[in-house]
Design a protein that fits this description.
By secondary structure, the protein is α/β, with parallel strands linked by helices. The protein folds into two domains: 35-161, Rossmann fold; 182-342, NAD(P)-binding Rossmann-like Domain (Rossmann fold), CATH 3.40.50. 45% of the residues lie in helices and 14% in strands. The chain has helices spanning 2-10, 14-29, 79-95, 116-127, 149-159, 177-180, 182-198, 214-224, 250-257, 261-271, 322-331, 338-341, 344-354, 360-386, 390-405, and strands at residues 35-41, 46-53, 67-68, 71-74, 101-108, 206-210, 229-235, 240-243, 273-276, 289-292, 311-313, 334-336. The protein has a seven-stranded mixed β-sheet with strand order 9-8-7-6-10-11-12. Strands 1, 2, 3, 4 and 5 form a five-stranded mixed β-sheet that branches. Strand 1 and strand 2 form a beta hairpin. It is globular. It starts with a helix and ends with a helix. The relative contact order is 0.14.
Length: 407
């Protein structure tokens, strides 16, 4: 990591750290995407996007000249949103030490609409020329907001390929990372590592989760294994924000992990107290670790002073704004940013595409645990060394790797 090492060698003070970080950010901002395309079929009402950044980092690797990320499906997704997410994936992939550029695909559609399968299959055909397996820079489809297990089956069938979609079932050569919760495993590992660095006893650690979808459910599954106790939970489908005065039962834990909505709704009144019909109220409860696992920008600068958690580990993409991160740092709150905490999904995707292992799930989990723990430690050590925000230390690490790939 020539650029990162040389930047560290030149950096001995806080001011010099920020001077070097500014240089890295400027160079990253000047990088254009290698692919930015809007795909349309007006007759079918199809509109989607693919953006790929920083494929230079993949040169010499098993996915040479490609970028990878998930596929977002919402009625309101825009090209600007996809560009932002693809750049974040560039940071996330570099932070994880993967020889893989960043990418994001998106389809502007309602995944519950009756004609969605037809639209999704058409979108896949429009994307086909850009796929890495067909000589393009787009590493392929994956799960993101709006994704469902059957989508992998549809796309692999439509394109007659199992390489075009990651996160698919194990019997198709995949890691089934949504069901296995590998992204959530990574976020839990980030939290465990942050508490170990602080010297905190995990058996006495309380935590709260906002958003009990695939990410939040997996965070509960793996962080609870460390001995930590969930004292608050929130999700609109469960009625808002819930408080638990005692550790939840094994039955409720399992229902939440498996997203068995009917069972959860039946058990919650027996074990918890509904504090509010707002899922945002969970963000401001007194806990040791807060996991925002729903959507972006839920903690803004104007809300930062209401946060009572000691540590925030970002499970969603950008749930804490940049200004809020700075305010929280001044308050003594540690924020583990998304691009450091949640590359578990992309690590699994990389293993799925490149490994010949007979147990890609185990390999993905092992790699996620090792890399994310190491990166969190490195980031927190750098942050402490220069008295800078952990997010800035994380950017320094990831951007150094990206800029190195351009030299």
């Amino acid at each position: 990591m020539k650029t990162l090492q040389s930047a560290q060698q030149k950096t001995s003070t806080r001011d010099e750290f920020y001077e070097q970080l500014s240089v890295l950010k400027d160079r990253f901002a000047a990088m254009p995407p290698e692919l930015e395309v809007t795909l349309r079929d007006p007759a079918m009402g199809v509109e989607g996007y693919v953006v790929v950044w920083n494929t230079g980092i993949s040169v010499g690797g098993p996915m040479e000249r490609s970028g990878k990320g998930g596929t977002r499906i919402t009625p309101s997704v825009s090209l600007d949103e996809v560009k932002m997410l693809a750049r974040t994936m560039s940071l996330k992939n570099a932070a994880a030490g993967l020889p893989l550029g960043g990418s994001k695909a998106a389809l502007k559609a309602d995944p519950s609409a009756p004609d969605f399968e037809q639209k999704y299959r058409r979108f896949a055909q429009l994307c086909k020329p850009f796929l890495h397996e067909n000589g393009g820079v787009f590493g392929g489809f994956g799960f993101d907001i709006g994704g469902r297990p059957e989508h992998a089956l549809w796309i692999c069938d439509e394109l007659k390929s199992t390489r075009c979609f990651t996160g698919k079932p194990k019997d198709m050569g995949g890691t089934d990372y949504d069901r296995e919760g590998i992204a959530g495993l990574g976020v839990a590992v980030a939290a465990i590592t942050s508490q170990e660095v602080k010297g905190v006893n995990l058996n006495k650690t309380s935590f709260a989760v906002q958003g009990m979808g695939a990410m939040g459910a997996a965070v509960l599954r793996y962080f609870a294994e460390s001995g930590a106790t969930m004292t608050y939970m929130a999700d609109p489908k469960y009625g808002g924000t819930w408080k638990f005065a005692s550790p939840i039962s094994t039955a409720l834990h399992n229902a939440l992990v498996h997203q068995d909505v009917e069972t959860v709704l039946a058990m919650l009144p027996q074990e918890g107290t509904l504090l509010s019909d707002s899922a945002d109220d969970v963000l401001f409860q007194k806990v040791d670790v807060l996991f925002p696992c729903a959507v972006q920008n839920v903690i803004t600068e104007s809300k930062a002073d209401r946060v009572k958690a000691s540590t925030i580990v970002e499970g969603a993409n950008g749930p804490v704004t940049e200004e809020a991160r700075t305010a929280l740092f001044a308050m003594g709150v540690t924020v583990i940013p998304d691009f450091i905490a949640n590359p578990g999904g992309i690590i699994a995707a990389f293993v799925e595409l490149t490994s010949g292992s007979s147990d890609k799930v185990a390999e993905s989990k092992a790699m996620a645990r090792e890399r994310i723990a190491a990166n969190v430690r490195d980031m927190l050590e750098t942050a402490a060394q220069y008295n800078v925000e952990p997010t800035h230390a994380g950017h320094f690490m990831a951007l150094g790797r990206i800029i190195q790939s351009q030299e």
